[in-house]
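debug: dumping io for the single-chain case to check the tokenizer round-trip. Nothing else runs in this session.
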Amino acid sequence: MSTALILTLINGDNFMRDNKETEEVKILSKRIKQAKDKSIHSKAEYVNPGSSKNIGIGIRVGLEMVASLIVGGGLGWFLDDFFGTKPWLFLLFLLLGLAAGFKSILKIIKYL
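debug: decoded output
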């Protein structure tokens, strides 16, 4: 009699099930490792701090923030002067410009 058959007779079906589960765990571990390796390689292009793509993204993020603050602050300054409500509309539109800047930065980051 083979060892597997003897163990099956003694332990019931547990030996064969454990053997099958061990094999499934090995297959699953291999698939997880492959997925992690693929994930690491796909992010490798963003890790290089000197690449021109990353420099371009950094410049774009900075310009988006500065532009939204200038537009919001300028619009608030003009409306404050027009309505005579200095500095409240300037502060309000400056905060709105800040929020718009962060929103556009999040949009940029989302598509990386």
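debug: round-trip ok. Residues 50-112 form one domain.
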